[in-house]
Q: What sequence folds into this?
């Protein structure tokens, strides 16, 4: 598996490494040996094809033997308990890698439009920029605006389910992701932003290419794809924003252009990059959620039967899916001061990787964590992060998931898997590339 350089390029040496890792100018912390089981071997097994398919046994073992594990080769502390991950994500002294971080660890960032976009965006900005950006942008994600999208989501979902019906009408199979999982979030985020329907098809590939920025290892090809996609997205949204300046509409573009608090406004570049970020982030994570939830229900017929009997359980099923098979597995922070996590000293400037996939299956937070249970209550997931960087689009993603799942199984009560699903080759995102289904309840031809 490729091991990344600080520039993001990869060389042929194991193992993988989370984005943000890379401090080499400080001594390695002294971490006591906690078990005869090799935590490095356990951790690295997560990055194998088998580990990508099912990382949970390894993550459980790592949580048991070294819940705060410093991996010297990757130069990051891996956190696998819910309490530790939540504490770091909600602690404002832990920073995100931003443009200041790039100066030391991604020295050629100015050559990459994608790096300039990613590390200056609200996703990576730190205080005070993050607070200012989030305050001005939050008006586009009010409960009223999200609720107003429900009828549009239902209409889009029904149209896509018609396509699924057409593709499987002869008893054959079709890829759920291609017909529903990908196009639904693209259409919904397009509706939110104000992208004309005729323009939306191009965004599917642009979103996928730009999302290579979310990977912990980025090859030269990844950078080329992301740079090109970001450049095209910026050009498109700049033109769309200019149109909304002339003719306002009830959409996110107009909301961001008009966003104002006192004398503060978003700059033109901030409007453009926020629109691009909303599109990329809203598209990828919701696509993952739709496929993962559908697969979880199809492989747990007893739980699927419960939501068929009581459709009011669908939102809980979506929440349980977010916990049981987390779309975004990990994210990184940088310690802004010397601190202690789980009895382990973490130096100032150290990289810390919060493994949400492990945290959401921590038995101290969620009893019997490996059981998929749509009637589970008291669930508190870290799937949308927590604290200052909690996802602004979380309510919209949950709404999309609930509408899609409810209407999917109402329309196709005999929906079934029609072959072996194929996961996307990704370390940070858990998503299906191909989720073959049949609407007749039988395997496709």
A:
């Amino acid at each position: 598996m490729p091991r990344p350089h600080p520039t993001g390029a990869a060389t042929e040496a194991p193992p993988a490494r989370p984005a943000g890792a890379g401090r080499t100018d400080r001594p390695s912390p002294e971490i006591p040996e906690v078990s005869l089981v090799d935590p490095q071997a356990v951790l690295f097994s997560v990055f194998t094809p088998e580990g990508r398919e099912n990382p949970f046994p390894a993550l459980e073992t790592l949580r048991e033997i070294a819940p705060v594990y410093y991996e010297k080769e990757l130069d990051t502390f891996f956190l696998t308990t819910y309490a530790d991950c939540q504490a770091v994500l909600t602690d404002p002294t832990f920073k995100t890698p931003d443009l200041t971080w790039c100066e030391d660890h991604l020295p050629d960032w100015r050559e990459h439009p994608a790096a300039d976009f990613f590390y200056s965006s609200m996703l990576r900005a730190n205080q005070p920029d993050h607070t200012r950006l989030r305050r001005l942008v939050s008006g586009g994600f009010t409960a009223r605006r999200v609720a107003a999208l429900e009828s549009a989501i239902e209409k889009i979902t029904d149209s896509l389910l018609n396509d699924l019906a057409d593709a499987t009408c002869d008893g054959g199979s079709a890829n759920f992701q291609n017909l529903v999982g990908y196009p639904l979030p693209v259409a919904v985020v397009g509706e939110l932003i104000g992208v004309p329907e005729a323009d939306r098809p191009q965004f599917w590939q642009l979103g996928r290419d730009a999302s290579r920025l979310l990977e912990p290892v980025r090859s030269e090809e990844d950078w080329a794809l992301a740079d090109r996609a970001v450049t095209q997205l910026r050009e498109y949204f700049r033109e769309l924003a200019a149109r909304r300046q002339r003719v306002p509409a009830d959409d996110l573009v107009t909301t961001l252009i008009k966003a104002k608090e006192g004398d503060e406004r978003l700059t033109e570049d901030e409007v453009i990059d926020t629109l691009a970020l909303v599109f990329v982030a809203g598209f990828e994570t919701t696509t993952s959620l739709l496929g993962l939830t559908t697969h979880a229900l199809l492989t747990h017929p007893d739980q699927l039967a419960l939501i068929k009997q009581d459709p009011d359980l669908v939102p809980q099923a979506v929440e349980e899916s977010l916990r049981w098979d987390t779309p975004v597995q990990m994210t990184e922070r940088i310690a802004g001061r010397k601190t202690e996590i789980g009895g382990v000293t973490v130096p100032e400037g150290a990289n810390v990787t919060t493994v949400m996939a492990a945290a959401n299956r921590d038995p101290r937070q969620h009893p019997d964590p490996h059981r998929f249970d749509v009637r589970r209550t008291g669930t508190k997931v870290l799937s949308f992060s927590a604290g200052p960087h909690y996802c602004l689009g979380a309510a919209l993603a949950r709404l999309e998931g609930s509408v899609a799942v409810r209407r999917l199984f109402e329309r196709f009560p005999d929906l079934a898997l029609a072959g072996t699903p194929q996961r996307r080759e990704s370390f940070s995102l858990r998503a299906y590339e191909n989720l073959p289904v049949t609407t007749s309840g039988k395997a496709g031809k």
